[in-house]
Amino acid sequence: MHDFCFTIPYGLILVCGGIIGYFKKGSLASLGGGLGIGFLLILAGYLSLQAFHKRKNSYFALILETVCAAVLA
């Protein structure tokens, strides 16, 4: 499987989780973290998908995904 098969759906889950956390508890940290990391993962997945269509690698997307994983860990 390719990385965009996981990063785009996981980014959407994080965005939804941040929004839900904000509405349930009023947590701005949840909103900021969910939206921030979620949108970065969606962007990385999109860049990777565009590179895949051109039969190339997107090293920027790979680095962005790695940084997001390190932040979440």
UniProtKB/TrEMBL annotation:
Signal sequence annotation: none
- Single GO molecular-function term? fatty acid transmembrane transporter activity
Major subcellular site: membrane
Q: Does the keyword Transmembrane helix apply?
A: yes
Subcellular locations according to the entry: Membrane
Cited Pfam families: Tmemb_14
Q: Which InterPro entries match?
A: TMEM14 (IPR005349), TMEM14_sf (IPR044890)
Keywords of the record, alphabetical order, are: Membrane, Transmembrane, Transmembrane helix
Output the Gene Ontology cellular-component terms.
Answer: chloroplast inner membrane
Q: List membrane-spanning regions.
A: 7-23, 29-49
Q: Which family does it belong to?
A: Belongs to the TMEM14 family.
Q: What is this protein called?
A: Uncharacterized protein
The top of its lineage is:
Eukaryota, Viridiplantae, Streptophyta, Embryophyta, Tracheophyta
